[in-house]
Amino acid sequence: MSSLPARSVIEFSQFDQLRDAREIIFSEAAALRQMGSALGTELCDAVDLILSRPGAVIMTGMGKAGLIAQKICATLSSTGTRSHFLHPAEAIHGDLGCLHQDDTVLALSNSGETEELRRLLPIIQKMDLPIIGITARETSTLGRASRVVLCLGDLKEAGPHQLAPSTTTTAMLAMGDALSLVISKARGFTPLQFATFHPGGSLGRQLTQINEVMRPRAEVRVTQESTSIRDAFVRLSSPGRRSGAVIIVDESDHVTGIFTDSDLARLLEERRDDQLDRPICEVMTLKPTTIQADASLQAAVDLLKARKLSELPVVDRQNQLAGLIDITDVIGWQPEAASVDRQAG
Fold first, then answer.
1. pLDDT at 290
2. Which of 131, 224, 279, 313 has the fewest C-beta atoms under 10 angstroms from its C-beta?
3. Is 173 helix (H, G, I), strand (E, B) or coil?
4. Cα–chain center distance at 44
5. Full-model pTM
6. Judging by DSSP bridges, how do beta strands 255-260 and 131-135 pair with one another?
C-alpha cells in the first residue's frame, strides 16, 4: 500500500503569517461593510415573506454554502423561527417529503449555478413554495428563481490564491444572521424564550428565571416584626437546606427587614445578649434589597456580587415574599457564568 507523498512546507516566518492572517480578516471585514452599506429593502421583503407564512423556513445549499445554511438554520430555530435543513442532493431522492405548502425556502449559493441546486429549484417552484435566495447576482439561476434576492455582490475570496470559499461564506453567514435576528425581534422573541430553547447551556442558565431555582417560601425562615430574635431562630429552625437569614414581613406579607446569622454573631460579640428576647424589628436591616421572582438568575448573581450580599429575598409582582436566593445556591453556577463572561469579552 503506497503512502501519501510528504507535503512540503515553505519557509514562512511568524511575521509573514500574522501579516497574511490580518489581511484575510481585514479583507472579509471590508466585504461585510460593503455588503451592509448596499443592503436595501429586499431584506425587509424577506422578513415580511417569512413572517406571513405559518410554515417552517427550509434552508438549502451545497458544499460550504450548505454548511453555512445549517448554521443559519440553527440560528433561526433558536431565536423563535422553525427551520430545517434540506440537502439538495438528498432532496431528489425522497427528502422532498419534508416540504409543506406553508413553508418558505431559503437557498444559498454564491454563484447561483450550483448543479444540485439548479435541479432542485424547478421542483420547489412547481410546489409553489416561495424562494429567498442568498447569492452574488440577481441574474443567476437562483436569483431568477427567487421571489426575494439578498444580494452579496461580487466578492473576492480572501487568501493568496483567492480560491477557497472564505469571504463569500462569511458574507452568507452575516446576511443569514441579520435576517434571523431581525425576524426574531419582529416576533417579539424574549430572552426567557431563548432560555427555554437552551436549558442545558451556559446561556440558558444565565437566563433561567429565579423562581425556577430559588428556595420557595415554605423553606424560608419568615417571621413578624414583633417576634423575638430567640424565638425566630428556635421556632423557625427546620431540616433541609439552611439559610443564614430570617426574613421579616408585615401583615400584608411584604418584606420589611432581614436578620442574618452575621447580625446574631455581632450581637453576641458586643455582649448584647439581652437583645435576644427583644423584638427582631429593633435590630433587623430595614427595607432590604429584594428581587422579582421572574428576573433572571444572572440578575440575582450580579446583585449579590455588587452589594456583597449572602441572601436575597425574592418577591412576586405584588411585592409579597415568594422565596429566597442564598449565595450557596449559586456558588456552583458562578464559575460557569464567569467563563461565559470571559468568552463574551
1. 93
2. 224
3. helix
4. 23
5. 0.68
6. unpaired
